[in-house]
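Recall the central idea of this unit: under ordinary conditions, the amino acid sequence of a chain determines the structure it adopts. In this exercise we apply that idea directly, starting from the sequence alone.
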Amino acid sequence: MWDSVSRMIQRPSQSQEEVKDLLQAAPFQNLIPRPYAKEGESLEIKIRRLEAKYAAMQIVAIVKKLGNEKQGKLIEEADLLTRERLCIGLTTFEVMLERIRTFLLEDPVWTDSSSSSTSISSASPLNNIDDTFEFHRVWSAIQFVYCQPVKETDFNVEQLFGEGLNFAGCTIIRLLNQHRRFETYDFAYHLFKVNRSDQKEDEVKNVSLPAFTERIRKFQILNQQIFACLNKYLCHTSLDEIPVDQIKCLTPMTLQTIQASVPIYQQRTGPATSEC
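Accordingly, the structure predicted from this sequence is:
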């Protein structure tokens, strides 16, 4: 809760600080506000007078004139960063996400299924929960654990780590393009849907189902907010980077496939005989 409050206070203060920086840097960057001109007065003449008045304060021209080549490049980059910071919404958050995505995709631990056994790899990826290389399965198990209510004398995951643990897990899931599968196959979400339909209030192994599902609901809302925040920076690249081969069409079960997969049907391979 305190993390959310601090972010709500920090965002407008950061915007005010950036506006203040731009206003203070304007005279040194030849950013002169448009003056008021009466009827019959030339606006261009007034602007030229102001440019001549503040010409001695243009830091970029002065450094290029009196400094070396390296200093000239640095002052150009600093000037561009100050000018475009608010105009194009320049932020290092998107660059950081792309860098983390590169690290994840280069490491075969996150994307390679070679470590799985042959018997598991031949099975359907939707049913593979015992041995998997998909991170969203691992995170589902972790989330199922910390969604369980703790005793009054113990610390829960929010008190220990705040929302940082959720943000880290959801960020990795989103960068690996597994967010839709996570929302569909998550264990805690499935339990919440079942409890919402049957409305049971039992206590299983000293765990209260109403308290358990209430924590699941809170974490589900938090995860949705985190994914929405990440989608603002990753939505323009997610559609192009999802390959077509991730779409798997599962054929419906037929009598032939059931007879071929169930051993009791395979034993009856001999010709049918009539007792009549």
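The CA atoms of residues 76 and 225 lie 38 Å apart.
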